[in-house]
Design a protein that fits this description.
- The complex is a heterodimer of chains A (867) and B (111).
- With 867 residues, chain A is α+β, with helices and mostly antiparallel strands.
- Chain A contains 28 helices and 25 strands.
- In chain A, strand 21 and strand 22 form a beta hairpin.
- The radius of gyration of chain A is 37 Å and the shape is elongated.
- With 111 residues, chain B is mainly α.
- Chain B has one domain: Winged helix-like DNA-binding domain superfamily/Winged helix DNA-binding domain (Arc Repressor Mutant, subunit A, Orthogonal Bundle), CATH 1.10.10.10.
- Chain B has a two-stranded antiparallel sheet.
- In chain B, helix 1 packs across helix 2, helix 1 crosses helix 3 and helix 2 crosses helix 3.
- The longest helix of chain B is centred in the last third of the chain and has 19 residues.
- Chain B is elongated, with a radius of gyration of 17 Å.
- Classes of the chains: A alpha+beta (867), B mainly alpha (111).
- Chains A and B meet through helix 2 and helix 3 of A and helix 3 of B.
Chain lengths: 867, 111
Amino acid sequence: MKNSNPPYWADRFLRWYCNPKFLEEIEGDIYELFDRRVEKKGHKTAKIKFIWDVLRFFRWSNIKKSNSKYVNMNGTLLFKNYIKLGIRNIKKNLVTSSINIFGLAIAIAFAITTFIFVDMQLNMDRFHAKGDRIYQITNFMEQEGEDRRWGDSPLLLGPKIAADHPSVESFARIEFASGSVKAGADVFDELVTFVDPTYMEMFDYPMIYGSQQILYDKNKMVLSKEMAIKYFSDEDPIGQELSIKFLNGTIKRFTVGAVLDEFPYNAGLRDDLYVPIENFFDLKLRENYDWSYLTDATFVLIKEGESIESIASSFPEYMELQHSSNPEWKIKSFDPIPLYQLSLTSWQIVGSVSGGGHPGGRIALMLISAFLLGMACFNFMNISVVSATKRLKEIALRKVMGGVKKQIVNQFLVENTLQCMFALILGTLIAYFLLIPGFDYMIPQMELEMRSSEPESLVIFFVSLLLGVGLISGAYPAFYISRFEPIAIFKGNQKFGSKNLFSKIMLGLQFFLAVITIVGSFVIADQSMYLSEKDWGYDPAGSFSVYVADEEQYEQMRNEMIANPMVQTYAASNYLIGRGVPLRSLEYDNRQVPVRLIGVSEDYFETFQLRLKDGRFLTDQALDQQTAVVVNEVFVKEMGWEDDPINKTFVYDSLRRTVVGVVKDFHYYDFFSDIDPVIIHGLDKSNVRYLSMRTDPENVFELEQYAKTAWHGIAPNDPFDRVFQEDAFDDFYRENSTNITIMMIITGIAILLACLGLYGLLSFNIQGKLKEFSVRKVLGATPKTLARVAGKQYSIIILISFILGAPLGVMLMQQLIESIFSENQKALSATPFIISIGLILVTMTITVAGQVRKAIKINPADVLRNE
Amino acid sequence: MKGTNLGELEELIMLTVGSLFDEAYGVAVMDELREKTGRDLNISAVHAVLRRLEEKGLLCSRMGGSTNARGGRRKRLFTLTKAGKQILDQTIAVRTTLYNSIPDLTFNFSL
């Protein structure tokens, strides 16, 4: 009877689950049945029945409940001993222990910082008591062929919703306007926020003075603490007056009615100067206050127990109203966003009133800290396993004296968790004193502090960090080591470390992660540096501009300025390069082309040193001033006029315009945004807003002083608003250099961790191989040979991890860059690779050199005399 | 008390164990039951009942000698304990008494 064995796996399954006490009888019985069935019913049926039997025996009473043959071993008594030994071991191997602890601490510090950062971003605006019922009504409009979400909403939407729906408790609108605030002799430009009186009741900003109802008096204003200090220093400002001159020239006085306390760290909406919205209507800043006008934001507060869905039914009606009064900008749909989601979505909202970053940064930070934590854990595992080689005899003795596997596992887990605890404490200190203040300093718009939205979540995070890291990095060494048989250890057969595949794979993984981080950081840094050196498309040095309110001011100012010999050329314009040029739409060939228009006087091109590509610049002849335009390269491409753009015509604003020249593309805003088609046309003098001048770059500050004095004579009621063209991209550069710094720090940490790991491993390895080195030395090995032997296996690992890690790092970062910069990407160059390889090689050599030196310097007699 | 009353399957298996005397192990009990009562039990059910009865102290067991038949695996052989015998006696006695007290009339189905 051949082939009459029951299915192997079923039998194995039985053996695995079955309590050993019952295994023999159960197995015996089902084997007997099996044999009988094979004879009677054939092989196949017997097999199936066998499986069935095995499954039927799988019941609670038959399942083995414990791995151990020894029941009821009380392990808790040994904990004190474990802790004592753990501390002794840390002291004994001070160098490797501190490497372990320090490496982990850095990674933990980074993780804590990331947690606090992400926690803050995810919990913006939570301090408003009614926040869960507040919604901003955003809407979708089509622009340049794609639907975009706008924060702006029709001015009359709020009142209409409140009137139509009893489920709405109140509404509040925000309308921004700039105004010149005069206090004493000083005049400052401020952003004035018109709000409905309900605004202060709806949102719960902490207040120092005054009440939430103060804005019902239309002559009162609310200041932020910062504003109050700016205008009234430390005095109580209540009852003081400030006058604001608005853009249409009207001046209005307001009495300070309330002062907000410092904004809570998680406040997404932070405005400085609030006045009742009624003034916005009174001041006639706009021509028509109807459905066609879009205000900056509309918030609604829903009554308790009601849902926002209740107002959704009226949206089509509101859209109808808006479409009929403003057919050019049709709203496609309304969409309410809960206040708590506002700062998370604000990067998608055009003209959002709330702060809030792109999620890319958040995700990148989380990824990086996960990488660093992973690296530190690998380090830990590696060094723990290798350091156990020194303690093999201790383990064996424990086992001989009656210690069971579980106890050894516990011992190592306790020891590792102990080290993790030290690391956690150290990491918290590093985060608290170094990283968090550091990030806080580097990212000025962020108030980063050690705190979380809820205290419990911070505690939970810390405990899970401790347990997670402790168990992950402690579990493998503990289980691996506890498996050894005492006999093998005492006989000296249990050797590991030198040929341990696991620790090599761990080291490889660690370098793999390090290489990804390093290469990735360098790709980002490379991109950032590329941007900082990027050509602006014109020459900003030595040019500087003054904002003027109207033609009269312009004339006066110009006359003052041309009297100064330092001014080489000057020009007038309605918008300033670097301060943003508005987007318009041009209809051509039955399609909409987005364009940006700048009106300039004839010397503009020389003042900014724009570069001519084709044709000529504008001249002061009347015809040129009216219909001739100069365009940029993107415009030419957009219109499809690549072969000969000169003298092509198009109609804009009911005038037929002729292209007389093409300038090279220049950046009118920042490098993050794409360059749109630009039309430069002659300036209608009544629209002049900027007087721009060019001088020698070294004279620019002197000229500014001169201009300032002149300005105070001409317009004492208006702020002196000047722009050094070189500062135009200042914010951008600051952000950019912050990015570079952060990336450098991350790279530094990654390299440090990888090298700590390498150092720890190598020092153990060489310790274990001292005899080998001694014998080699006695037999005449040169230091060079010794160094090669010591370093060989590691260089191969590092090489492999580099080959695998580098492309991955580039790929990840390239994707990140693509998502941030749609254009202006730097082509991938070899530099990041070369720098990374160099960096890794240098640090590795330094790390290895110290250890190899130890191996070379040994006196063979010391090591070998015991043999 | 649960331990003092026998379930129907428990009773049958105890009877079988008693009748097999010294040859009562899982498969044998199962076979005997099928032969005598026509019940087709799974072997795991038989094991469960046997173990439960042993825990109640109504059966005791020992490992038999190893033979070639089951790949050298020994059988666990069950025998009735004194308490087991007593309970069986009781149960049978109760049944007999009850049965005997049924009036003859009841069986006169032809009425």
